[in-house]
């Protein structure tokens, strides 16, 4: 395998990061592998479910980013990794891992990946997905209630106490490190076409 292209996809909760990631996965299939920063939340096995639900999951200290960086570096060398898996329904890391095979393109997705300078140095292209705050909170409510077993009250409370202030303190300032800022996420066809063309050029060169 030649040179591996690494692309970071950052942005606030509900901004459309996953829409972009999934479109690239569908477009390039096995030529792309993905690391999700959310899977690298620290395990809190000693805490009760109630205690875990009250933790701040939107600050840099919540993530085992050092492990993500080491595994990204392994993929860049062409080595497979066993990435952790996070279970949102119980607010904890799952006991199992997932084998990630190296691919010509590695996507890294997460709200805070551009906040970490060392991680940024391992990313060839840094993307920040931008969306209005009211759009993001509505998307988060729908996702967390429908897919993650949360109550409306818990989602709103978490948003107001940690998500919003942490976005303003960490996520929004990290936009300055982005090479590309994409408004409207995966629905921005011009930006998506540019990303797809860049990946296709990399694959065709077979560096």
What is the element layout, followed by pairings?
Blueprint: E1 5-11, H1 17-28, E2 32-36, H2 49-53, H3 65-76, E3 81-87, E4 92-100, E5 105-109, H4 117-121, E6 125-130, H5 133-147, H6 152-174, E7 180-183, H7 189-205
Parallel strand pairs: 1-5, 1-6, 2-5, 6-7
Antiparallel strand pairs: 3-4
Helix pairs in contact: 5-6
Descriptive report:
43% of the residues lie in helices and 21% in strands. The mean pLDDT is 91. Helix 5 packs across helix 6. With 207 residues, it is α/β, with parallel strands linked by helices. The protein has a five-stranded parallel beta sheet, sandwiched between helices. Strands 3-4 form a two-stranded antiparallel sheet.
Number of discrete helical segments: 7
The whole-number mean of residue pLDDT values reads 91
* Assigned CATH superfamily: P-loop containing nucleotide triphosphate hydrolases
- SSE run: EHEHHEEEHEHHEH
In helices, the fraction of residues equals 40-55%
Please state how the strands of the largest beta sheet are arranged side by side.
Answer: 2-5-1-6-7
Structural class: alpha/beta
Count of distinct structural domains: 1
> What is the correct CATH architecture?
3-Layer(aba) Sandwich
How large, in whole angstroms, is the Cα Rg?
A: 17 Å
Main pleated-sheet profile: 5 strands, parallel
Number of beta strands: 7
* Name of the level-1 CATH class: Alpha Beta
> How much of the residues is beta strand, in percent?
15-25%
């Amino acid at each position: 395998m030649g040179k591996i292209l690494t692309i970071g996809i950052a942005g606030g909760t509900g901004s459309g990061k996953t829409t972009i990631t999934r479109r690239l996965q569908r477009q390039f299939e096995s030529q792309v592998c993905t690391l999700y920063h959310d899977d690298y939340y620290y395990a809190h096995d000693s805490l009760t479910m109630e205690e875990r639900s009250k933790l701040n999951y939107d600050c840099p200290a919540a993530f085992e980013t050092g492990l993500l960086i080491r595994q990204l570096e392994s993929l860049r060398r062409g080595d497979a990794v066993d990435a952790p898996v996070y279970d949102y329904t119980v607010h904890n890391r799952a006991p199992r891992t997932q084998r990630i095979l190296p691919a010509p393109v590695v996507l890294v997705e997460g709200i805070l990946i551009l906040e970490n300078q060392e991680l940024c140095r391992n990313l060839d292209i840094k993307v920040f997905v931008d969306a209005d705050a009211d759009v993001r909170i509505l998307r988060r409510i729908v996702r967390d209630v429908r897919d993650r077993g949360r109550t409306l009250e818990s989602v709103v409370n978490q948003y107001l106490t940690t998500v919003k202030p942490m976005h303003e303190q960490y996520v929004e300032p990290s936009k300055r490190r982005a090479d590309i800022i994409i408004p409207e996420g995966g629905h921005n066809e011009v930006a998506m076409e540019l990303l797809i063309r860049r990946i296709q050029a990399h694959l065709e060169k077979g560096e």
